[in-house]
Amino acid sequence: MPWKARDTMSLRREFVELARQEDTCMAELCRRFRISRRVGYKWLGRFQAQGVAGLADRPRRPKRSPRQTDAVVEARVVELRRRHPAWGGRKLRRRLQDIGVQGVPATSTITGILHRHDLIGTEESAAHKAFTRFEHPAPNALWQMD
Q: What is the pLDDT of residue 18?
């Protein structure tokens, strides 16, 4: 006999139907479905408040981001980059500090802003070579004379 293919919604619906019956032991039911009692009560509460739609997964993205870069500063970064397309995150940050912009973000944040606004191409990023140390596996592996 083949296994029944069951999705998350059908399992949650089945859980709620069983939990709403009289004389149901919530702890035993949660053990049977391999969930915590906290999750079981959460699903039951959502079902009672919203019906079947309450059992669907909710987005995990936060509703707000308190440390998000200010829109005015982000616009200044984009404007400065469009005027000077060769400048990178470090130079843009320094220039924003020099002209007196308050709350200038970190260099990495400025680079992220440039990527979000498609002001740094992938070919530019690929052309950049990381610093490689002048190093050999053992002492005296390379001799050099100046």
A: 93
Within a 10 A sphere around the Cβ of 52, how many other Cβ atoms?
A: 12
> The pTM is what?
0.54
CA 78 to chain centre: 22
Q: In Å, what is the CA distance from 115 to each residue of 9, 82, 103, 109, 136? A: 38, 13, 20, 10, 36
pLDDT for the residue numbered 1? 55
Say which DSSP state 57 is in: P
Place of tokens 């079981």: 40
Which amino acid is it at 1? Answer: M
Distance CA 53, CA 99 (A): 52
